[in-house]
Write a structure and sequence with these properties.
The protein has about 140 residues and is an alpha+beta fold. The protein has six helices and four strands. The longest helix has 18 residues.
Length: about 140
């Protein structure tokens, strides 16, 4: 098996996570590898980071203090004239190449891709303050909520 360099892995991960609506077809031109290889590297990297940093991916009580949440409420109230809102629920799908097994578990008919769904709470300062998932591709936002 061809083992990618850490630099390549980090570049692919950052590119895929920053690109809105990315597809591995586009990355073939940039990185020069097949869709299946790029998908494998991307998924393995996410799994590795998830396992290695799982304690940091849970609710961050140090960042989301009562005082900070009150600041968020005030910031939203100024813009939206509403009370008690401190964050916004955002759902996203991370697509990957068609898997060999159990394709129906990962395929989203709505998005027309295979992938995982995530749901997060975005705070007014632009940070992702909580992340839930992954959920299988066909899972709707209403199930994650």
């Amino acid at each position: 098996r061809n083992r990618p360099s850490p630099e390549f892995t980090l570049c692919l991960l950052l590119y895929c996570l920053s690109a809105v609506g990315f597809q591995f077809n586009d990355e073939i031109k940039i990185f020069g590898y097949s869709q299946s290889y790029l998908s494998l590297v991307f998924n393995d990297t996410l799994l590795h980071l998830g396992q290695h940093y799982k304690k940091l991916l849970y609710w961050n009580e140090g960042r989301l203090t009562t005082v900070k949440i009150q600041e968020y409420v005030q910031a939203v109230e100024v813009v939206a004239s509403t009370r008690s809102v401190w964050g916004f629920i955002d759902g996203t799908m991370r697509c990957f190449c068609r898997p060999g097994d159990n394709q129906q578990d990962y395929y989203s008919g709505h998005r027309k891709h295979h992938g995982f769904q995530f749901q997060c709470i975005m705070t007014p300062d632009g940070f992702m303050s909580s992340l839930y998932g992954p959920y299988m591709g066909p899972t709707g936002n209403w199930v994650m909520f």
